[in-house]
């Protein structure tokens, strides 16, 4: 039995897509097939658990054929019109924990990603890299699935949207072609977007970027970027410095981009970043939040000149947060983001910091923590509650009994 | 909540207002009698306790500091509940924060849902009085707004200079205690409500008994 990986492969992307195609043929388009919840036919509990176990196993190993076989069985059973009930599969985390218990080497790798193990200064340590690590992997697969399920509209994940846009822009130098790109890019509605939890870039933003590019195309020069010209970047952490970021930041970019089909390209990405900054100047909605951002930057790290008005950290944070307010309009700037960007600003310049920040928000499940309603926050609180109930039951009992902890979401 | 043995009164004080008006510094000034130089934007909410003696009674004031940004208002819903009094802060040097007083008051009444909407104890606090460069929000305007919104009380403070911060919080707590007295009269009603809850629990118990029967059918 050959193992085909579901996740996109850098070396051979074509092989990956063919596999996906076969998968599409097997699963009917209308059938809701999720990674996390699959409808099972009501059988004995032991049998269901057996299926769930093999399914999670196959997800873990990303064995596409096993998955297909499993789904075949489900559809077959579904056609017999027996009573179906949702059955929750073990999450990937559970699988990892099991493997960890067995002492499997694979899990050790997952549990401690390289950048955490490094002895170098890592200010992002507070961000739960581990807990969200596998989610991003899963998400990537999920997004691929959704992409192929929806024939009518290709959903474009933000960064890829920019990349495709840029490719097309480079390919066709004719201006008329450039303006026609956005019509091809179809974007789902706002509420759908929330459900899918995919970062989808606004068509408006894309078209605006194009227009801006068209207007500027005659005079625009990549050397004009203020960031590229600032060659003497010196990192505060004192590790060997690059032009734009220090060694630590270099590793972070590698780490953040390891799931993507390409690596971090400073010149291209900083170009996009600068485009966004110029766009943000004329955007009224973004300008509103700029005031808030300026307000908050001054009181993020107050005892350092680096972040005072006029300091390099100040401008970096301002640029990153303004660009992000434009990049992700439904989310925008929320208090609390400033602390993350502050720690990034120590180690890299605006463009690198921005893409690292975007990657943190999108790939590491931080976005829900900032969206209206704070679903992610409640989820985290619930996770902590469950974890503490398991690990420190006595303290948990005390906290709950004295009503100092409330992990449930109170609805109005 | 009232502990009769220690004769302590427990009060929940909620401080709301626009982002950056100085809510955190005000509270910090009151609870720890210092001015915070390196204040940070509040995320979600924080609270601190202070024990004070007012009119011969020991009061434990739990002062809730809320985040000013609009996005965090949805979280605020759970913090507003059960508040005994509420202080709305605005920055006297920032006119937009004064104009937002309406929205803050309405949001509190909507989400906090206190029993007495008309008479709920609010205190309007004009902070940053030390920044006197002639363009501050005038006391007359602020008093006018308070008179138009149900005769609220208004006080001007400065967390930096420590002018009338103590006074403001004492006023707030006194107001909250007045409200507490009103609630104490209602105690018999509460007792009757307790009886009702017992009935409900019995119903739930009956439901639990019924459920297994349903399962047997399937």
UniProtKB/TrEMBL annotation, chain A:
Q: Which InterPro entries match?
A: Rab-GAP-TBC_dom, Rab-GAP_TBC_sf, Rab_GAP_TBC_domain
Instruction: Please state every residue range assigned to the domain named Rab-GAP TBC.
Output: 263-412
Q: Which GO terms describe its molecular function?
A: GTPase activator activity; small GTPase binding
Database matches in PROSITE patterns: TBC_RABGAP
For this protein, the record's Pfam families field holds: RabGAP-TBC
- Annotated protein name in UniProt: Rab-GAP TBC domain-containing protein
TrEMBL record, chain B:
Keywords assigned: GTP-binding, Lipoprotein, Nucleotide-binding, Prenylation, Protein transport, Transport
What InterPro entries does this protein's entry cite? P-loop_NTPase, Small_GTP-bd, Small_GTPase
The cross-references to PROSITE patterns, in alphabetical order and at most eight, read: RAB, RAS, RHO
Q: Which GO terms describe its molecular function?
A: GTP binding; GTPase activity
Q: Name one Pfam family in it.
A: Ras
Q: Does the keyword Cell cycle apply?
A: no
Q: Record's GO cellular component, any one?
A: cytosol
Q: Which GO terms describe its biological process?
A: protein transport; regulation of immune system process; retrograde transport, endosome to Golgi
Among SUPFAM superfamilies, the record links this protein to: P-loop containing nucleoside triphosphate hydrolases (SSF52540)
Q: Which domain of life is it from?
A: Eukaryota
Name the NCBIfam families on file.
Answer: small_GTP (TIGR00231)
What is the name listed in the Swiss-Prot or TrEMBL entry for this protein?
Ras-related protein Rab-7b
Q: Which organism is it from?
A: Euplotes crassus
């Amino acid at each position: 039995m050959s193992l085909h990986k579901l996740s996109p492969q850098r070396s051979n992307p074509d092989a990956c897509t063919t596999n996906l195609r076969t998968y599409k043929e097997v699963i009917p388009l209308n059938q809701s097939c999720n990674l996390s919840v699959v409808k099972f036919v009501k059988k004995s509990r032991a049998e269901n658990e057996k299926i769930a176990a093999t399914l999670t196993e196959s997800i873990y190993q990303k064995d596409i054929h096993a998955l297909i076989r499993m789904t075949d069985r489900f559809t077959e059973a579904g056609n017999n019109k027996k009573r179906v009930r949702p059955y929750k599969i073990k999450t990937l985390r559970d699988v990892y924990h099991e493997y960890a218990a067995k002492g499997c080497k694979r899990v050790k790798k997952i549990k401690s990603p390289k950048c955490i193990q490094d002895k170098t200064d890592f200010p992002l340590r507070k961000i739960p890299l581990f807990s969200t690590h596998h989610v991003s992997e899963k998400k990537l697969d999920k997004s691929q699935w959704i992409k192929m399920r929806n024939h009518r509209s290709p959903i474009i994940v933000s960064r890829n949207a920019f990349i495709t846009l840029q490719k097309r822009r480079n390919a066709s130098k004719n201006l008329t072609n450039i303006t026609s790109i956005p019509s091809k890019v179809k974007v789902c509605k706002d509420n759908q977007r929330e459900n899918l939890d995919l970062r989808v870039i606004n068509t408006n933003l894309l078209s605006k970027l194009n227009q801006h590019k068209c207007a500027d195309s005659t005079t625009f020069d990549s050397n004009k970027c203020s960031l590229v010209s600032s060659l003497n970047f010196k990192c505060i952490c004192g590790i060997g410095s690059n032009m734009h970021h220090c060694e630590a930041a270099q590793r972070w970019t590698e780490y953040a981009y390891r799931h993507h089909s390409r690596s971090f390209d400073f010149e291209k990405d900083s170009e996009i970043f600068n485009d966004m900054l110029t766009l943000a100047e004329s955007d009224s909605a973004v300008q509103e939040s700029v005031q808030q951002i300026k307000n908050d930057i001054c009181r993020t790290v107050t005892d350092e000149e680096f972040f005072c008005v006029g300091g390099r950290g100040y401008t970096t944070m301002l640029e990153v947060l303004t660009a992000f307010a434009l990049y992700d309009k439904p989310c925008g700037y929320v208090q609390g983001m400033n602390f993350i960007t502050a720690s990034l600003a120590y180690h890299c310049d605006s463009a690198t910091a921005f893409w690292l920040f975007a990657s943190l928000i999108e790939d590491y499940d931080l976005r829900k923590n900032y969206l209206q309603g704070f679903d992610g926050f409640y989820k985290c609180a619930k996770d902590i509650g469950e974890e503490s109930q398991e690990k420190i039951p006595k303290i948990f009992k005390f906290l709950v009994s004295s009503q100092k902890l409330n992990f449930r979401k109170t609805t109005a | 909540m009232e502990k009769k043995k220690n004769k302590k009164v427990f009060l929940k004080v909620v401080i709301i207002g626009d982002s950056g008006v100085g809510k955190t510094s005000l509270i910090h000034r009151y609870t720890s009698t210092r001015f915070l130089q390196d204040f940070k934007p509040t995320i979600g909410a924080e609270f601190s306790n202070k024990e004070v003696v007012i009119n011969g009674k020991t009061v434990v004031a739990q002062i809730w500091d809320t985040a000013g940004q609009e996005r965090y208002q949805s979280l605020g819903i759970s913090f507003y509940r059960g508040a005994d009094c509420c202080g709305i802060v605005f920055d006297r040097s920032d006119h937009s924060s004064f104009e937002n007083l309406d929205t803050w008051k309405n949001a509190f009444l909507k989400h906090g849902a206190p029993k007495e909407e008309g008479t709920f104890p609010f205190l309007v606090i004009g902070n940053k009085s030390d920044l006197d460069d002639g363009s501050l929000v005038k006391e007359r305007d602020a008093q006018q707004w308070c008179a138009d919104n149900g005769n609220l009380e208004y006080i001007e403070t400065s967390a930096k200079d420590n002018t009338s911060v103590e006074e403001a919080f004492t006023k707030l707590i006194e107001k909250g205690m007045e409200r507490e007295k009103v609630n104490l009269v209602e105690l018999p009603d509460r007792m009757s409500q307790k009886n009702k809850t017992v009935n409900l629990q019995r119903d739930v118990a009956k439901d639990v008994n019924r459920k297994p029967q349903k399962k047997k059918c399937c």
